[in-house]
Fold this sequence. Notes:
By secondary structure, the chain is α/β, with parallel strands linked by helices. The protein folds into two domains: 134 residues, translation initiation factor eif-2b, domain 1 (Four Helix Bundle (Hemerythrin (Met), subunit A), Up-down Bundle), CATH 1.20.120.420; 198 residues, Rossmann fold, CATH 3.40.50.10470. 40% of the residues lie in helices and 17% in strands. The protein contains eleven helices and 16 strands. The strands form four sheets. The chain has a seven-stranded mixed sheet. The chain starts with a strand and ends with a helix. 5-S-methyl-1-O-phosphono-5-thio-D-ribulose binds next to helix 2 and strand 9.
Amino acid sequence: MIRTIEWTDAGVVMLDQKRLPAEEIYHTYIDYEGVAEAIRSMIIRGAPAIGVAAAMGIALGVKNAAAKSPSIEELGREFDIICIVIAGTRPTAVNLFWAVDRMKAVYARVRPLGTEAVRNALIDEALTVYREDIEANRAMGRMGQELIPDGARVLTHCNAGALATAGYGTALGVIRAAVEAGKKISVFADETRPWLQGARLTAWELAHDGIPVTVITDNMAGHFMKKGMIDCVIVGADRIAANGDVANKIGTYSVAVLAKENGIPFYVAAPVSTLDLNIPDGSHIPIEERNPDEVRMIQGVAITPQGVPAANPAFDVTPARYVGAIITECGVARAPYGESLRAF
Ligand code: MRU
């Protein structure tokens, strides 16, 4: 299995997703500030992977703080700072805040038992978040693959694979499970400007597993749909509102509209940690704005005239009416999502 992130005695180890596919480089982070910077700079990315990194970053911060034998009050102050720094790294993927809240709940429960107990419980919790994410992806795969017909040509956008999770993947997990069930599946991977998660990461993962993949630029998706060359679309999600509106990588909305126009099913695969039932609809989802240079440049080379502005929203929101099903580890939800998602 692809090793995206791991907890080790030396620190939190991550595969550098900025360098793939040219180089497979692992970094070991020895403090929570390093983990926060890795999330911010997208060395690790993808909603569930960000959640796991957040949990491990907090556990690492507390482990380091506990080594200085502080009082439980001192540890508490440090814990609050660690949580604020980790929560401030990226705004859209709700898995980040879900993981921080989970760590806070464990802290509150174990605090009366003292520093050592808090340290151990938080490390255990981070490892549980990691393990549960892989299990959730396997469950999504088992249920979701039933929606994918044998012989299907599947379009995906961005990277919702092992690299975006603790392992196996959400959208790519469903594709992997369909292949494991003996189905002949081929994939069209949208390149996914400006970060090229599709071209660099999805293509790398699928090639690694021997699953046929063709990379297309984002503006080609409609052409292939109209020619009858796409049978279904499956993507991941960064945050799903109570009414089923889905925030995912910028460009997902266009793909969903094109799929509807062409009568192609559009599916979302995401763990329940991606559900944000506290917000009624997608208009409440904060959309990360990244540095416009990510659009103005490709691998350090300027592609626009100097001084011309560029916009760089990292995510968009696909209205629930375009979503054929939301595949979670607890079951496959269908419209009306306001009711079906509440069951999870
Ligand atoms: O900016 P990124 O690369 O973190 O965005 C990732 C996506 O949009 C993924 O599709 C989403 O997180 C689902 S990953 C299982």
